[in-house]
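Lab notebook, bench 4. We co-purified these components, and the gel suggests they stay together. Before we commit to crystallization screens, I want a quick structural picture of the whole thing.
Request: model the full complex, all chains together.
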Amino acid sequence: MATSENSNSNNGTGGGCNPGKLPEASRLIGEWLSGSITPADFDLLQTMLRDCSEVRRMLREEVNLEQVLRENASVTADLKAWSPEGLPDHDGEGEAAVMPFPGQDAKSRSKKYWISWAAAASLAVLLSAGTFLWGGRHALSKDLVQEETNRGCAILTHVVNAEWLDDDNSRRTGDTVNSGMLKLACGFAQVEFFSGATLLMEGDAELEIVSPWEAICHSGKVRVRVPPPARGFLLHAPGMKLVDLGTEFGVQVNPEDLSSEVHVFEGEVEAHPNNQELISLKEGMGLYKEGNKVAPLPGVRPDDFMGLERLDAITATRAKARYDAWATWKKDMCGDERLVVYFPFERQGKWQRMIGNGCNPCNPDRNGGVVGARWTQGRWPMKDALEFKRPGDRVRLRIDGEYEALTLTCWVKVDGLDRKFNALLLTDGYDAGEPHWQITQDGKMMFSIAYPDDEHPEVKRNQVHYSPVVFNRSNIGRWHQLAVTYDNCSGEAIQFVDGKEVSREVSPLYQPGRKIVYGACELGNWGLPLQDHQFPVRNLNGCMDEFAIYQIALAGDELKKIYEASKPE
Amino acid sequence: MSSDASAAPAPPEHYETFVRLFVHHEGRLRGFLRTLVRDWDDVDEVMQETSLVAWRKFSQFDPDTNFMAWAAAIARFEALKHLRKQSRDRLVFNDDILDLLAEESLEEVDSLERHRSALGKCLEKLDSRQKELLQLAYQPGVKFHEVAAQAGKSAQAFYKTIQRMRAALLQCAEKQMQAEAAT
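Here is the predicted assembly.
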């Protein structure tokens, strides 16, 4: 608190305002902005600010500068995230080094997009206010709506036994959903809207997502739960609009005659049938609508609608069955003599920092050491995984020997592609015969082997292979099986995602018969970056469940089998 | 449309006007807030509240008056509320200084805006390497000292480089403003 000061408060430039002190004031302001100022210096800065308008002006200008720099950086960062295709395909390991950001280009675009970006940001903030805003949504400029759609409207948080009829038949738990149609033939899907509303749809059902605040039930059964922050969530049924005032309710639409029923299980819903007055439905009340007829329901039937708790129970049972099947499969799999190392990622103790090589018989020299990474839930609630988040997180291991071929497989949940290169398996350094396996920031898998030219070390001769883009905004955050095979006889590198081949090629720099070696290496990080490398920081942001290295290149159908035996759902 | 009895919001057709005004002044408001609170995370939080309150009260805003002054008054109040909620820590200035800074910031809204646009022009003049460094140092969600640690070089050296660039940018902006004032 303010204690009595030794000099009087003075708004002018006299008193303690000595021009010789300005450089010091500048330093203190810098330290204050970066959060590194000491308590004593902070007191000194306060005194200077109190006494000297010039120092206050400096502070305002420094803050102004910092604000401009941050705006600029966030716009560029935002653009990077939005347009992975827009940046040059620079790998830093392959061809000559160029700057990753063509400044002019990014700049000119950043200007253009700045307004809509900022507007979308404040829009997101405003939308969380809750009620009454959808009316204005349509009035917004096209840019705003565009941004909002790109950001997605909801997340699929549970998908059980589902078969989808719409274009995107591969929807899975963890997917982000944009506005558009969800056609569920059978099974259940839980949709969590970004507004906070949760909707459970039960196949056969058709749901159209309009925005984080609005959806249309065209047919089938849905159950909606709206917590207070999502009050005002809007659900349309044919000829009727339902405004949720913080509650739980069910809607059933019969696609034959477009009749619909509303059941309010808790709280209150406002029903707006076409051309008719608003009807307020309280807990235990229901409404039947067919054509222009509207009638109260004699009673609600909560058990007719799948509840979130029941879905949880079904999900848990299924997860247990999948886990058990995997555990049985694993017993055979770990005896495979072609395995070099196999990490099932099963934690024994609460604070276990060693991960066992699960090959049977086991070579304990190939156990891994966990650094930083923490244990978390894997593909199923009863299965462990390691989470890599911070720049220091990694698993260290050492693999001896020389190899003619390899298969690398792992289950990974990528939470973000923060780095130019995001490590799966990297050897320390990058010497002759050493493989590097990583994901690029634009969502491609990248497999490479170093074969430097000893006579011309400045010429990069590494074999580098990229897959097409496999990670994008809508599929990160869910479990995928990644694999790559390579053998030095054919020179072919083949990459797989979820058991499916995504790329196959022979590098133009391939020469037959060159050995593959590992030595000291790391999962999820780069232990010993090359000196002066442009992109030394490569920590993975995500979780790893299973990891295996084989000494042969497994065939595609065998990888497909492994995928089927170990997939989460 | 739902009835919201607690507040009397502006009609939805005013929403676009509001967003436009708010976005237009957002940068200035953020700079204004940064002088009042502890760090940029706090600025984000207070900005959220400010935008909500401003929209709720938008029906009371007189379009013939200065939006920045109106919004800054709200922002200032929200900042004080925010500071009161947290235990005041050592990086928050005393109330008398906060008052001085807030008053003067409002008086100087126009010149600070010219300063911002001058800084923008000066940023354009940097070469791509310098731009990239600044981009690294000020990317969202990242603390300065973390970037310095990641940059590989000593944190001290990184910090100094950035400070030099900042000083150069401020100088450039000053010249730019003088030149503009002269024409």
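The helical segments of chain A are 22-34, 39-51, 53-82, 103-127, 134-137, 142-150, 308-333, 556-566. Worth comparing against the SEC data before the next meeting. The longest helix of chain A spans residues 53-82.
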